[in-house]
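Entry type: protein chain
Record version: 2
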Amino acid sequence: MNSSEPEIPDEDIKLFLQAIKLQSVYDFSNYSLKSLKRRINKIMSDTKLSIPEIIRKIHEDREFTGKVVKNLTINTTELFRDPKVWRSIFYDILPLYLKMESIKVWHAGCSTGEEVYSMMIILSKLGILEKSEIYASDINNDVLDVAREGKYKYRFNQHFIDNYNSVINTGKDLKEAIPLTSYEYYFNVNKVYDVIKMNPFLTNKPVYKIIDLVKDENLFNIRFDLIICRNVIIYFNYELQNKVLDLFYKNLNKNGCLVLGLHESIMGPYESRFNKNNLAYFRRDE
């Protein structure tokens, strides 16, 4: 934690978590303590309230409680974030599924949807978007609304185009040459109105659901060939990470693949249930 941030007593953290659990449907008790303290400090800074004042307001104001929950669950994302990962998905992982009749993909913790669109762009480039089924979930319905619309600020996301080109228009050769494709095929940029808007053939495809990975099952009720869950479990403690990995393992098809964030890995009891290949974890059948 930043040394300039006030230290929050463990008892106050406990009371804060109890208040959230009592006044909402969310339970953050198994989240990483370091991450929680960082986000609570930001809430204190933004609201100009002390932690006891925040706890009291959580008990008194349902709208305020909702805002606190959203601040606890916000994740940073962008189109083709960490291009190295997306080049691996493009050139190493997805070609393994080219001959399948259908491909089912779940983006767990999809936030505002940029990674959902990244995946669909790659599937389109490989010529397999039509036979793909795209599912995406998050704990926060507000970010799902943004994902459904596929509309983002241009000035905040000017690097989208650089990321796109670094993944789609450069890199290894596939077995069959894939021609360069302008980003305009997938999204439009209006600099005057400060807008990047995904094209309808992308926005109309995914199925979205609110899913809390902490306590919900797979509410899509299907099994997947590929699960993308990047920069989510890093916020969970060891026990909760294993619970979520169990959820993923049980809902992957044979030879299904799990992709985590660059700074996330599988350790403990689930390490033996996956075969790691570069950035991908492939389900190992028992």
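Comment: The beta strands are 103-108, 132-138, 151-153, 187-190, 195-198, 207-210, 224-229, 252-260, 274-277, 280-283.
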